[in-house]
C-alpha cells in the first residue's frame, strides 16, 4: 500500500498519457445528464469529479451507488461505469441497466467482466493498469473521467490544473513518505493523534466534502478503524449539537477539519466559529488541515494525499497490514455462493 | 418535542389540505432538472423526495446544501427553496442565485425573509404553519414538495400512498407514545439500547438511506448525542472493514439497520450476510428494524417515525430536554455579529 500511495503523482501522469487514445475515441451526442456508477474505491473518482465540476459543468453529475440507475437515465445520459476489478456486481447490474436504456456508456476498468461486455457492446473502454487495490487507483480512475468530460465539451481545459496537481504531490511526498521522521512528517503526526480514537473528518460542500469521505473510507480500509465524515455548512445544523453525551466516548473523538481557500467565505467563517468557539468546551480533539496548492484540483488531491498516508501510518501504529480487506472478501465469497 | 412528534400524521393531513391552494397556483414550464436547496431539518423533505422519486421522476433531483447552486441551474430548472424559519442564510443566498439564473422558483417556508422576498419576486410561496423546530415539521416540508412535482407531471399520483402513510402512523403512535411502557414500546427499547453508546444507523441506497441520515440528525439534535449513518451497498465496500480497532470503542457502537422489502433483493442479501456473519464476531451491538406499511412512502415515514421517538426518549434517558439546540443558536448569533 505504501508503494501505491507514493506513486500517486506518477499514476496521474500515466493516466493522462496512457489513456489519451481511448478518450480520443469517445464522441458524445447531446448529453443532458451524467451518471457515474460505482462503489467504494471505484466511486471516489466520480465523487471528486462531481465536487470539482459543480460550478463548471452545464449538466448535472450524479454518483450512483447501487444495482439500478435512476429513472431519468436515457439516450441523453452519459453513464460512466467504473469498476477497477471489472467484476463489482452492483456496477455490472447498473451497466446492464444503462445499456437497456440506450444511454451513452463508457467503461473505466482494469479488466474483468465489465471490460469484456463493454467491448462486445461496442462502447468506449478506458483500460487502466491492474494489480492495485481499487482505493489505491484514485488517479487512474479519476483522470480519465475528467478528460472524458473535457472531450465532450462539458468541462473547461484542465491541463494546467493537472500539471500543478502532479507538482504539488511530488513535493508533498518528500515530506510524507515513510523515511521522513514524525517530527517532520505531518501524516505521521496526524496518525498519532488518531491512535486509540474515533476519527471524525469534516469537509465542506464543494471541494472537501468528497475528500472527507475519502479519509473516512481509507481509515476504514487501510487502518481497519471506525471513522466517520460530515460536511459544513450542513453539520452546523445538526452534528454540532451532538457532542454532549455520552461524555466518556466524546473524549475519544478526534475531529480533523479539511479546509480550502476555495471555500465560500461564510463557510470559512463557520469553520472558525465552530472549531474555535462552539466546540471549544466539548471534550473531542480538534485539528485543522489546510489544502496545499492553488488550483481546486491540486487542493483536492493534496488533502486526499495526506489522508492516504495517515490511514496507512495508523495501520502501522495498530500493528496491522494496510492492504488486505478480509471482511470484504468474506462478503463477496458468501454473495457468490 | 413529544407533542410535535405525536402529531406527525395530523401534520401530513394538514399539509395536503391547507397547501392545496398554493400548489394549484404553480405552473411549471419545461423542467429538465430539480434542485431542492435547504439545510438540516429543512433539507430532510428534499432528501426523502429524492429517494422516493429516484425510480419515478423523469428528471434528476439534487438536494443542495450550501450558499450557491450548481452551474447547470437555469430557466429549465425547478428550484424549491426550503427554509422553515425563512431566515437560513445559506438558503437565502441560494435563493438569490436561483433568481439571478432565471430558474423556476418555489419557496416553502413558515415566513421570514424568504417568504417576503419570494412574494415580492412573484414566485409561488407555500406557507407552512410556524412555531415548531424545523426538524419537527417534516410532514409540512415534505408533502408540498411531493405535490408540486405531481402537479408538474413529474411524479405519478401519490394520493393513495399518502393515505396509507397517515393510517400507518396513526396506528404506530398507539404503540410508540410516551404513555406506552417500555415492554410494549419499541422506540423506548431501542433508546435503551443506544444509551451510553454511539449509534450508527445503516440504511440502503433507495428509500432508507435518507431515513438513516434523519435518525443520525435527530439523535444529534434531540438527544444531543454523537451518532453516524451510512448505507448499503456502499458500506460493504469500506465501513465493514473498520470494526477492528480501537476495540474498547467498537464495543460502544450500536448499529441499527433500517430495512425495507422495497430494497433490491441483493441488497437485502447483503444486509443478512453482513449482520449475521461478517460482523458477527465484531464487538459492536446490532439491531434490525423493518419498515411498516406496504407503499414506499409509508415505509419511509414509518422508519422516520420510530427514529423521531427514539431520539426523544434517548434525550429523556440522558436527562436532557429534546427541544433546545443551544450550539446552533450560539453559532447563528456569532455569524450575525
Automatic annotation (TrEMBL), chains A, B:
GO terms (molecular function) for this protein are: carbohydrate derivative binding; glucose-6-phosphate isomerase activity; mannose-6-phosphate isomerase activity
GO biological process per UniProt: carbohydrate derivative metabolic process; carbohydrate metabolic process
Where in this chain does the record put each SIS domain? 22-165
Q: Matching Pfam families, A to Z? A: bact-PGI_C, SIS
Keywords, comma-separated and alphabetical: Isomerase
Q: What InterPro entries is this protein classified in?
A: Glu6P/Mann6P_isomerase_C (IPR019490), SIS_dom (IPR001347), SIS_dom_sf (IPR046348), SIS_PGI/PMI_1 (IPR035484)
Q: Which domain of life is it from?
A: Bacteria
Question: Keyword Nucleotidyltransferase: yes or no?
Answer: no
Entry keyword ATP-binding: no
Q: SUPFAM superfamilies this protein is in? A: SIS domain
* Protein family membership: Belongs to the PGI/PMI family.
Q: What's the protein name?
A: Bifunctional phosphoglucose/phosphomannose isomerase
